[in-house]
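BUG-419 | component: ligand-complex export | severity: low

The export step for heme C jobs runs without errors, but we want the raw record kept on the ticket for reference. Input record follows.
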Amino acid sequence: MPLLLFGALTVSPPSAEAQNKYMGAATCASSNCHGSVGPRTATNVLQNEYTTWYRHGAHSQAYNVLSNADSKKIAGLLGIKNAASADLCLKCHSTYVPNKARRGRKYRLRDGVGCESCHGAAEKYLRPHTAKNSTHAGNVKLGLIDLVSLKKRAEICLECHQGNDNQAMNHRLIGAGHPRLTYELDTYGILQPNHWEVDKDYVKRKAPYNSGRAWLVGQVTRASEMVANIRSKKRGRFGAMPELSLFYCYNCHHSLKEDQWKKRSYQGRPGVLRLNRSSLLMVAQGLKPLDAALASQYEAKVSALESAYASGNADSALAELKTMLDGAVSSLVNTASFKKSVVTQMMKEVATFTIAFPSPPYEIAEQSAMAFSALSATVDPSGAKYQKRIDAIYDGLKDEEGFDPKAYIAAVRALKGNL
Ligand code: HEC
Ligand code: HEC
Ligand code: HEC
Ligand code: HEC
């Protein structure tokens, strides 16, 4: 059957598609499907995706975590009876489908963050996607989420790894003991660990993958959603106070002993809270080698945000920044060439930017380390040139409370010397 016709006959309108059932990870787990113990070669995909997800990844344990001692303590402090049945926790720690009519026979909450959290409700694509002549585009029409789109991929991850109006992460949750959230598209994809291989047939069926582009699209998406969170009436404030998780944590959580203040520069503004601009500023470094004029226009908007925020009315600065991120910046990063020379230049920009801080905030240091690993995967895939230096940079991040900015800068300087 010609594909178009097949598509046209079976595609349901978006409203109906949004009603597709979640079939449960067990549906994908047969050893002939995605539950092979080792990778296989008979089909285009590895077929051991379920095994990788279940045995090696945190996502399959995300629901179980809600019954451990830490979760009990967190829930207790927040006045929640049982984390494992609380909406608040389940939204991010499971494939959460409150509407029981949309749960397939094998749907289980205990699957945690299951296949369908990322790939979409499988009811309509489950059967067709195994057919010999099925295509990625055809499957997408049946409700498979297009994770080949880096923007879409980042959006899906960020629902849980940054939070939004529907799935909120805030300072109350963090204060009760929840880990601070951070995210970088390429690094987190590998840490999952990834269960797909970008080989020749993948590129032919789907698209090539460039870790430099992935990094920048991830940063643009995270920055854009960060701006949306600041703007949100639900998320931006806590009563009369701003929402504290939107700021650099160690603006407040640093020791007042040991003459801490003598060591820091405070960038000319001591005693002032600063928005967590880690991804907003990384975007600027990524833009410089691609389009210097756009990069400086963009940097001006980021600076304008900081002053506008301090003066109490940031609405229009936030709106302008969001328009630019979602418009000119997004279209550039989707179409630009990320060849090795350009990506190496991005590494240099990130390094120069980081060492220009007398003492970079921890969140900036963390994002620059992840930038180096993502970008170097494109320019130095074997790791022979830069890996040792990057490992030393990561070593400097191990102790958040005792983070030593000077030592960190020295490690970045050493990498920069090699670039
Ligand atoms: C906005 C999404 C979100 C919400 C809401 C959320 N979590 Fe999490 N949680 C995460 C993510 C993402 C991680 C992993 C963070 C990382 O390691 O980068 C995590 C990690 C954790 C961990 C640490 C897990 C480990 O393996 O050490 C615990 C414990 C936890 N969450 C408990 C809870 C509880 C209890 C609730 C509800 C009160 C909750 N979470 C609500 C997203 C969320
Ligand atoms: C945390 C998100 C996430 C979860 C959970 C997840 N995947 Fe994936 N998966 C991805 C991403 C991202 C890709 C890469 C983009 C793509 O090829 O579609 C991918 C790719 C794949 C591929 C494509 C490989 C190829 O060569 O085309 C298969 C098959 C797959 N996943 C199966 C599964 C199965 C089965 C599960 C559950 C056991 C699962 N995934 C759980 C995010 C996820
Ligand atoms: C439905 C919510 C959800 C989505 C969507 C999601 N995650 Fe997660 N992720 C979690 C939770 C919750 C944890 C912590 C689970 C645990 O510790 O057992 C986690 C843990 C992780 C970890 C381990 C972190 C660590 O510190 O070890 C990585 C890496 C990760 N996720 C990557 C991704 C990527 C990449 C995507 C998008 C392709 C993604 N996640 C999408 C909820 C989600
Ligand atoms: C505007 C200042 C401010 C910012 C910014 C801020 N916090 Fe807090 N934090 C506080 C205050 C105030 C408390 C309550 C202390 C108390 O109860 O004694 C607190 C409590 C906490 C606690 C509970 C344990 C403790 O130290 O008392 C944790 C954990 C925490 N914050 C983590 C974070 C993280 C992570 C971030 C960044 C995402 C952050 N905070 C951002 C001011 C801040």
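Assignee comment: Attached the raw record above. Residues 171, 174-175, 180, 244-245, 247, 249, 251-253, 273 surround heme C (ligand 4) (CB under 6 Å).
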